[in-house]
């Protein structure tokens, strides 16, 4: 799957991911009204609204981008109907040729991690039948439980040719509370980065590993160090846009070949029509506003890479 991600990035020339994080408050009134008219103000109604919202954004942007990252929490909050909308979104994006990164941030004791890996990137056996339940291409993994919590994900990746992004240095303001703690004089995130590099050597694609890392755009200096520690890991970089990251901060997340990193923006793209810059599109044309925001993000990152 890493090979498809790299190929999609080369084809589009856009090292970006659209984060599909649909909160009801981002969904224009006309979309909500239609969904509620059919399903009522219910979990089913909310799930229909988020699915229709996602579909319009994907339809308006898929030709520009290599990948999407649906954040499962945004769907789980609507219970089973929300998870059905998650699955519909995954399948639709794959039909459109996009790589799907399920932002699920799972990780547990080995046997439980194995079940998470099976459900999201693997296959489950039911009697004589085999199912791929969620079937994302990549998932995000929390490595805090150690190697035995990560290995089941790696095993499924090898078997199914899927991929992982392991949390190394997260973008949030308090990520340093634990992740920056020094152990024998070195920050914990560097030690996790070394582990990601080691795990990744077991499953190499053509030029990059199936095992990637998450490093926040909000910590560019740390990204520079981690790029060197994990030369073959693709880095998923959240924190662009709504969290303050900009193209000029991100050049050191990339390798000299212009590859090696993929930058996510969720609210900055899907709720673009609410920003002053794109307000002229109006809520009716929210998908066009998202397309304009994608074009601006690509130009910002390309410009930064060309001028480095
Ligand atoms: O370190 C991390 C890891 C994951 N995320 C996720 O990325 C998006 C960011 O959304 P924006 O609207 O672009 O801020 C969201 O799904 C987070 O859960 C992250 O932000 N930082």
TrEMBL record:
Cited InterPro entries: Aldolase_TIM (IPR013785), OMPdecase_type-2 (IPR011995), OMPdeCOase_dom (IPR001754), RibuloseP-bd_barrel (IPR011060)
Entry superkingdom: Bacteria
EC number: 4.1.1.23
Secretion signal, residue range per the UniProt entry: none
Domain Orotidine 5'-phosphate decarboxylase: 15-281
Recorded catalytic activity of this chain's protein: orotidine 5'-phosphate + H(+) = UMP + CO2
Keyword list, A-Z: Decarboxylase, Lyase, Pyrimidine biosynthesis
MF GO annotations: orotidine-5'-phosphate decarboxylase activity
Pathway listed: Pyrimidine metabolism; UMP biosynthesis via de novo pathway; UMP from orotate: step 2/2
Active site residues of this protein: 105 (proton donor)
UniProt KW Lyase keyword: yes
Family per record: Belongs to the OMP decarboxylase family. Type 2 subfamily.
Name of this protein: Orotidine 5'-phosphate decarboxylase
Organism: Faecalicatena fissicatena
Protein encoded by which gene: pyrF
């Amino acid at each position: 799957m890493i090979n498809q991600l790299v190929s999609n990035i080369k084809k589009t020339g856009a090292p970006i991911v659209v984060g599909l994080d649909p909160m009801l408050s981002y969904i224009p009134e006309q979309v909500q009204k239609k969904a509620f008219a059919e399903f009522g103000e219910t979990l089913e109604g909310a799930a229909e609204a988020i699915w229709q919202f996602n579909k319009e954004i994907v339809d308006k942007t898929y030709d520009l981008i290599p990948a999407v990252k649906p954040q499962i929490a945004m769907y789980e909050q609507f219970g089973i109907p929300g998870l059905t909308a998650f699955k519909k979104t995954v399948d639709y994006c794959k039909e459109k040729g996009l790589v799907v990164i399920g932002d699920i941030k799972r990780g547990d004791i080995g046997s439980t991690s194995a079940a998470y890996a099976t459900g999201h990137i693997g296959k489950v056996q039911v009697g004589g039948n085999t199912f791929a339940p969620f079937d994302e291409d990549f998932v995000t993994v929390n490595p805090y439980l150690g190697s035995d919590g990560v290995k089941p994900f790696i095993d499924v990746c090898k078997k199914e040719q899927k991929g992982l992004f392991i949390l190394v240095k997260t973008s949030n303001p308090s990520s340093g509370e634990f992740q920056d703690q020094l152990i024998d004089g070195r920050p914990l995130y560097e030690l996790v980065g070394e582990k990601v590099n080691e795990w990744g050597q077991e499953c190499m694609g053509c030029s990059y590993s199936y095992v990637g890392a998450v490093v926040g755009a909000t910590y560019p200096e740390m990204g520079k160090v981690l790029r060197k520690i994990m030369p073959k890991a693709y880095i998923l970089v959240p924190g662009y846009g709504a969290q303050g990251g900009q193209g000029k901060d991100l050049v050191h997340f990339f390798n000299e070949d212009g590859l090696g990193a993929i930058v996510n923006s969720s609210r900055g793209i899907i709720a673009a029509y609410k920003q002053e810059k794109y307000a002229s599109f109006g809520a009716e044309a929210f998908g066009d506003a998202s397309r304009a925001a994608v074009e601006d993000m690509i130009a910002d990152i390309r410009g930064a890479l060309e001028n480095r």
